[in-house]
TrEMBL record:
GO MF annotation, one: zinc ion binding
Cofactor binding comment, as recorded: Binds 1 zinc ion per subunit.
Catalytic activity: guanine + H2O + H(+) = xanthine + NH4(+)
Keyword terms, alphabetized: Hydrolase, Metal-binding, Zinc
CC cofactor: Zn(2+)
Gene: guaD
Gene Ontology CC terms, in alphabetical order: cytosol
InterPro entries hit by this protein: Amidohydro-rel, Guanine_deaminase, Metal-dep_hydrolase_composite, Metal_Hydrolase, Metallo-dep_hydrolases
Name by which UniProt lists this protein: Guanine deaminase
Length: 438
């Protein structure tokens, strides 16, 4: 058995701070102890409470000035879009045609996909994202490349092959039959391997025929362990296009619902232009939304109302949505979510933002029995954050007295330099200084 303890400030969320009193929703210890045994959390609490009971001989590493948090959960992103980050000029539909579809065609080539998958996962880790729900491309090999790379790193990751049989370049289109065969084959080949999971991934209603959406719903129904992952109501032109392509439906969500894609395992990215009625139907089904503030701002898609989604009871995770989103950092996304809230006049409490980036994401991905916080028994995916990583951060952090102050400063000033270490299942997977021996 391996056992290691870390002494530092510790924080994690135990519940949604909008639904539970702060003292129950969050556990924070300025002098804490995290004990990891065989890749799982054995204990999390105040040093003075836990130290006396530590088994003799347990190594304790003191990390003063550091904050240990759970690894972040990226509830929506695209690994083939790293190279379209920072593309100038268009809103969603033009951006897909001008930038994204050309870049995704390169993923027919396994060597290209391997290189991009490794770079992407390393970016996740150096930014503190230890779990993600990921779009691949239409190519089966793109999924194999990402799963191979995640397996090698022992990451908890969910991904899927894009389904897309119309309104896209021919080189990026599959068919109902090949889409079904590839998806089924990938589920069979990868289910239960390492910490991987599969998501049936129709890109969005614009690029799938009715027959393909129906097939996706059938495959999801046949495999209760897989998620459904798609986009919905991101941009007004997109919403109008869906209305033209699928006349006679109550709304965008109704299209997915009709084809069996509104489930308790569905994650809908964006939901910016989603009515209260649709949000309530999502809650009724147990589906989740992924809020992607950086992407929504860059593409000019609109301002997601977190307040409305929370009032309706929707589970909301936080997504980078790379490459429409411009950063891999969930800390940065917490800051972007705050700014969206400011533009809406809603505000966003720092603890709520931290919940979105951790436990809420795990809940959205149905992984909260495994990750999302550092409760005993969970997988030990955690971060060591350096609160003085840059001169400006050190200076501003010195004046941040409360936990909320510190989290807010991080959300506005932090980048990948803050993530001193990232651990996956108790093993060091990223070290800012490059030394992976600890
Ligand atoms: N809607 C359909 N495809 C995409 C995509 O790749 N990125 C974003 N942001 N929205 C989409
Ligand atoms: Zn997306």
């Amino acid at each position: 058995m391996s056992r290691q303890a870390y002494r530092a400030a510790l924080v994690h969320m135990l519940d949604d701070p909008c639904r539970a009193p702060a003292a129950e929703a969050c556990a924070y210890h300025t002098d804490g102890l995290l004990v990891v045994e065989d890749g799982h959390v054995a204990a999390f609490g105040a040093y003075e409470d836990l130290a006396p009971a530590l088994p003799a001989g347990t190594p304790v590493e003191a990390l003063s000035g550091r904050l240990i948090t759970p690894g972040f959960v990226d509830a929506h992103t695209h690994y083939p879009q790293t190279d379209v980050i920072a593309a100038w000029g268009s809103q969603l539909l033009g951006w897909l045609n001008n930038h994204t579809f050309p870049a995704e065609q390169a993923f027919a080539d396994r060597a290209h996909a391997d290189e991009a998958a490794g770079f992407f996962l390393d970016q996740l880790l150096r930014n503190g994202a230890t779990t993600a729900l990921v779009f691949c491309t239409v190519h089966k090999t793109s999924v194999e490349a990402l799963f191979d790379a995640a397996l090698a790193r022992n990451m908890r990751l969910i991904a899927g092959k894009v389904l897309m049989d119309r309104n896209a370049p021919p080189a990026l289109c599959d068919t109902v039959e090949t889409g079904r065969a590839d998806t089924e084959a990938l589920i069979r080949a990868w289910r239960g391997r390492g910490r991987l999971g599969y998501a049936v991934t129709p890109r969005f209603a614009v690029t799938s025929s009715e027959a393909q959406l129906a097939m996706a719903g059938e495959v999801a129904a046949a495999h209760p362990d897989v998620l459904v992952h798609t986009h919905m109501s991101e941009n007004l032109d997109e919403v109008a296009r869906v209305g033209e392509l699928f006349p006679g439906h109550r709304d965008y969500l109704d299209v997915y619902q009709r084809f069996g894609l509104l489930t308790d395992r569905s994650v809908f990215a964006h939901c910016v232009h989603t009515s209260e009625d649709a949000l309530r139907r999502m809650v009724g089904a147990g589906a989740a939304a992924a809020f992607c503030p950086s992407s929504n701002l860059l593409l000019g898609s609109g301002l997601f109302s977190l307040r409305q989604a929370c009032a309706c009871g929707v589970t909301v995770g936080l997504g980078t949505d790379v490459g429409a989103g411009s950063s891999f950092s969930l800390l940065h996304m917490m800051g972007e979510a705050y700014k969206v809230g400011q533009l809406r006049g809603e505000g966003l409490d720092p603890l709520h933002a931290f919940y979105l980036a951790t436990l809420a994401g795990a809940r959205a991905l149905k992984l909260d029995d495994k990750v999302g916080n550092l409760a005993p028994g969970k997988e030990a995916d955690f971060l060591v954050l350096d609160l003085a990583a840059t001169p400006l951060l050190a200076r501003r952090m010195a004046a941040a007295k409360t936990l909320a102050d510190k989290l807010f400063v991080l959300s506005i000033l932090a980048d990948d330099r803050v993530v001193e270490r990232a651990y996956l299942a108790g093993a060091l997977a990223h070290a800012r200084d490059g030394d992976l021996r600890r």
